[in-house]
Structures are given as structure tokens and as C-alpha cells.
Design a protein that fits this description.
The complex is a heterodimer. By secondary structure, chain A is mainly α. Chain A has 11 helices and no strands. Classes of the chains: A mainly alpha, B mainly alpha.
Chain lengths: 276, 283
């Protein structure tokens, strides 16, 4: 029985490492500083390889820009939901907020993308734009972010907030003096995880925010961007082109390392918090 | 509640969240309404999807989604459960943390990267093994999805197994139960609610996954012939939305039909999540 279980479990143990190593191995030949900073001439490769030789710098900056915008939109709202949950909600309301957040989290991202397409791109006439992508991403990460912040605030001992209030501190002072010092790592973990999520989400921004190539840096909030996630997708569509294949693996490796940076930092922060 | 800058800003933030949630639901209904009005619910069971001839049957995509779900679950559940049992019952504690880390790394890989792996590793392999034309198939989608949900199920199952009280394990040991009996009679029944909610969570993820499926499933709007033929190209609800959203004109019936697919996905996901919450043990 034990042997059988171990055999069944083997793929689960080996696959993570295998996936990572395979991506690195495929990406290795194409990974270079030139690929990212872009001394490769973009005009040269026209026709089939159009866009596949472009430097990745624009895609990376587009992705990061959209992620940062989404996070800065979502964080205040998530904070206010969490504060409402912690300060004023009754027991019933608390339960309702948590269950609503869970429901929102379970809705597939592409559905958010569809709604954003109707409302932002078409009805509000924003067009395919950075702003539409950022708003959609911020709605997608909102449930995750707020439930993480709620849990971080819940871990502050009840006695501490009681003591603070009975000493005559106002809510604002209590938040700054008592809650922030003990919950900052939890909140930061939540934000980092939400950033990683925003960076890896592809489907909802595919037809609302991004174009394949030709954009170096978005001129305004309402112009389209290029992003790393969708770049990988477009390259994957090109099929037989070897250059495109290689660039796709390289972009996958870059994207993966960005996401892993965020989620590993979150992991270590959580370990640090548990060790306190 | 006194009016202070803090309470006003908290109120504003919550208001924005509520408004955007309501807007989400409203626009989903509103823009899929033309489709439901002119075709009705019967279209769910119609098997023809030809946008250019105004035929919008949803059945092929629904069948594809269900097949992908079953295949993914069939591969992922036994494997993840076995991994959870092995890691929490057999391995030393220091290994467990490493394993959790690697699982979280696996969970953090973006879905489009899984799509690449599926497209350039899995498809050629399937093509050679089963002598297919391209390898695009429901089986490929199911396999990639099972890889994606493996960490979800495994982490939840591991947590559930860890929460089984120590006293119960020791009591079972003192009663002379051997390892298998302890597993089947004590550990699994005790941990089952947690494992079940992990599986339901993964089910929601499978249903809504787009990019990876879109790259490997083949996007052919036909029912598998015969219905259990999982080696043929097919279509799922998500991959259809992803493929055709770019070409559907805003306001057309095609667009409305795609919104109806989205509505169907959202409703299923909401029911699944409510069901999960009702059956999740309160800790």
C-alpha cells in the first residue's frame, strides 16, 4: 500500500522541478541581456517573424505598469473593506462579507474581462487601453487582496485593540499605532500575492488592453500597451517559427522569474511572521 | 458610528466595491439578454455553433468543459491525495516545508506558461503516442488542467490531514490498528471535509481556466464523435470566449451569445462556491 501511494505521488513531487527546469533549459539559448534591453532591430524581421525579434523591455514595462496601476487602485478599496470588517461590521455582516468575497474570487477571470470589455472599452469609449486593463485587473485581485488583509488584521490580538480603545485612542490612532506595527507583514504578504496574481492573469487583458507589438511606451492611460503575458500567447500562435518559439520560452522564463520573485518574497515574509 | 475622515473613506471604498460588483452582474445580464430573448434556454441543448449562419448552440462547449473537468479531476485527485498522504504521514517535517514551497511555486506559474508547456511538450507527445493529426484534444486540455490544480488539492488535503488530532492517531495506534487501517478508518474520514472543499475549489479553477486550455484544446465547435472520444479537438466555454471575443462585433448576436457563455460560467462558479461554503467545516 505504501509503495503504491508513493508511486502515485511521484508525479506530484517531480513535476514542479521538471517544469521549472524544462522552461529554463528551453529559454537558455535565447536569454541574454540584448533580448531584454533591445539592441535587436525590430524592423529587420518582417513577415513571418514580425514582432518575434523585438526586445522584451516594452512588454516587461507594460506588464509591470499595468500591475502597479491595478494594485494601487485595488489596495485602498481592499483596505477599506478590511477596516469595515474589523471595526464596524456585526457578526452577520462579517460572515456575509467573507462569503461574498469568496464568491467573487470563484468567478472566472475571463468573465471579469467580458464585463470590462462591455462597460469600459465599449460603453465608456475607453477603447483598448491601459486604463481598462488596470481596472479589470484591480477588480480581479480585489477579493484576494481584501480577504488577505482581513485575515492579517484578524491576527492582531483582541486584547491589544481593546486596551488601545480603553486608553482613549481614536480608531485612526489605533490603526496606526497598534494594528500596523503588528499586521504590516501580513498586509504586505497579501499585496505581494495580489501583485503576482495580477502579473500572471492573461485572458481578461487579451482583448481589453493589449496589442501584439509596435508600442514602445503607452502615450496615455487610454492607449493600448504590450504585455509579457499576451506576448507569450501571440508568439505561441506563430507555430513553426523557430525564432518565435525561442523568444516565447525566454519571455516565459522572464515572466516566471518576476512572478516567483513576488511570491517567494511573500513566502519568506509569512515564514518570518510565523517565527515571531 | 461617528462621522470622521476614516469612516467616510471606509464608506466610500466599500461603496465603490459594491457598485462595481453590481455593475458586473448587471452588464453580464444586460448584454447577454438579446441572446436569451431570441433563442431561449433551448439553445443550451442545441449542438450547432456557426456564428455566420446565426446558429448558436452551446452544447459542444458545455460537453467539452465537462469532459475537461472529469479528465483533470481523474488525474489530479488520486495523485494529489497520494502526495498529501505521503508528505504528511511518511516524510519528516523538514521535507514537508520544502514540498509546500515547491507546490506553491507550481501554483504560481502563470497559466499561459502552462499553455506553452502543453503546446510544445504535451501535444507532440500525444501526437506520437496516439498517432493523431495534431494532438489538439480534450485529453491534452485535461492533462494540463490536472497539472494546474494539483497544488490546490494537495495543499488543502495536506492541511486537512495535519489537523487530525494527535490523540486520535495515538489512540488508534494503541488499539493496534496497522498503517492501512489507520489511514482508511481514522485519517481519511476525519480529513474528508477539508479534502472535499479543496476538490471543489479546484473544480472552480478548472471551469474558469482559459489560456492553457485555449492553446491546446483545438477550438473545434463540434460534439466529440462518439461522445466519449476525448482524442478529438473540441471546445470549452472559456476557450470559445477567448478565441472569438476579438472578432465578434460589439452589439451583434454573436457578441451576445459569447456573453451568454460568460454568464453560464459565472452562474456555475457562483453555485459551486456557495455549495463549497455550505460544506466547508468551520475552523
Amino acid at each position: 500500500m505504501k509503495i503504491f501511494l508513493i508511486c502515485l505521488a511521484l508525479p506530484a513531487f517531480l513535476l514542479p522541478a521538471a517544469c521549472l527546469l524544462y522552461i529554463l533549459w528551453q529559454a537558455w539559448p535565447a536569454l541574454s541581456l540584448e533580448l531584454i534591453t533591445g539592441t535587436v532591430d525590430a524592423i529587420e524581421g518582417q513577415g513571418l517573424s514580425f514582432g518575434s525579434q523585438q526586445a522584451l523591455w516594452h512588454q516587461i514595462s507594460g506588464s509591470l505598469l499595468m500591475m502597479l496601476l491595478a494594485c494601487s487602485l485595488a489596495t485602498p478599496i481592499a483596505l477599506s473593506i478590511a477596516l469595515f470588517h474589523a471595526l464596524w461590521a456585526s457578526k452577520r455582516q462579517k460572515k456575509m462579507v467573507l462569503s461574498l468575497l469568496q464568491v467573487l474570487q470563484s468567478i472566472p477571470p475571463i468573465v471579469y474581462g467580458l464585463c470590462g470589455l462591455v462597460l469600459l472599452v465599449h460603453l465608456l469609449q475607453w477603447g483598448i487601453s491601459l486604463a481598462a486593463g488596470a481596472v479589470i485587473l484591480s477588480v480581479i485581485i480585489l477579493p484576494l487582496l481584501s480577504s488577505n488583509i482581513i485575515h492579517a488584521l484578524e491576527r492582531v490580538p483582541f486584547e491589544q485593540s481593546q486596551a488601545a480603545l480603553s486608553l482613549g485612542l481614536s480608531h485612526m490612532e489605533m490603526i496606526v499605532r497598534v494594528w500596523l506595527p503588528s499586521a504590516w507583514s501580513g498586509i504586505l504578504t497579501g499585496i505581494l500575492l495580489a501583485m503576482a496574481r495580477a502579473l500572471s492573469e492573461t485572458a481578461p487583458i487579451l482583448f481589453t488592453a493589449t496589442v501584439f507589438s509596435g508600442i514602445a511606451w503607452p502615450e496615455s492611460l487610454f492607449s493600448p500597451v504590450t504585455s509579457l503575458q499576451t506576448h507569450i500567447f501571440y508568439l505561441a500562435q506563430e507555430g513553426s517559427n523557430a525564432q518565435a518559439t525561442q523568444t516565447a520560452w525566454a519571455s516565459a522564463a522572464v515572466l516566471l522569474s518576476l512572478v516567483l520573485c513576488l511570491s517567494l518574497t511573500a513566502w519568506f515574509l509569512r515564514r518570518y511572521e510565523e517565527s515571531l | 458610528m461617528r462621522l470622521s475622515p476614516l469612516s467616510i473613506s471606509v464608506f466610500l471604498g466599500c461603496l465603490i466595491a459594491c457598485i462595481s460588483t453590481c455593475a458586473l452582474v448587471w452588464f453580464l445580464f444586460d448584454s447577454s439578454w438579446p441572446y436569451w430573448r431570441s433563442f431561449g434556454l433551448s439553445q443550451i441543448f442545441s449542438s450547432q455553433w456557426y456564428p455566420y449562419e446565426s446558429l448558436y448552440g452551446l452544447l459542444p462547449a458545455i460537453v467539452g468543459s465537462i469532459w475537461a473537468m472529469f479528465i483533470a479531476m481523474g488525474f489530479a485527485v488520486p495523485c494529489a491525495l497520494a502526495a498529501a498522504i505521503v508528505s504528511s504521514e511518511m516524510l519528516p517535517c523538514s521535507w514537508q516545508n520544502g514540498l509546500r514551497l515547491s507546490m506553491e511555486i507550481l501554483a504560481g506559474i502563470p497559466s499561459v506558461v502552462y499553455g506553452l508547456i502543453g503546446l510544445w511538450v504535451l501535444l507532440p507527445w500525444l501526437q506520437n503516442t496516439f498517432h493523431l493529426l495534431t494532438g489538439h484534444s480534450l485529453l491534452a486540455a485535461g492533462l494540463i488542467l490536472s497539472l494546474m490544480i494539483l497544488p490546490t488539492i494537495m495543499l488543502m488535503a495536506q492541511d486537512a490531514l495535519r489537523l487530525v488530532p494527535r490523540e486520535q492517531r495515538e489512540a488508534a495506534k494503541h488499539l493496534g490498528l496497522d498503517w492501512n487501517q489507520r489511514l482508511y478508518r481514522i485519517l481519511l474520514p476525519q480529513a474528508w471535509p477539508g479534502i472535499r472543499s479543496g476538490i471543489l475549489l479546484a473544480l472552480g479553477r478548472v471551469l474558469g481556466e482559459t489560456m492553457a486550455v485555449m492553446l491546446v484544446v483545438g477550438s473545434l465547435d463540434r460534439l466529440p464523435q462518439p461522445i466519449y472520444n476525448i482524442l478529438a479537438p473540441a471546445q470549452t466555454l472559456t476557450s470559445r470566449i477567448g478565441r472569438e471575443m476579438g472578432e465578434a462585433a460589439f452589439g451583434s448576436m454573436h457578441f451576445s451569445a459569447l456573453m451568454a457563455c460568460g454568464l453560464l460560467l459565472a452562474v456555475t462558479a457562483i453555485f459551486l462556491s456557495l455549495f463549497t461554503q455550505r460544506n466547508t467545516p468551520q475552523t
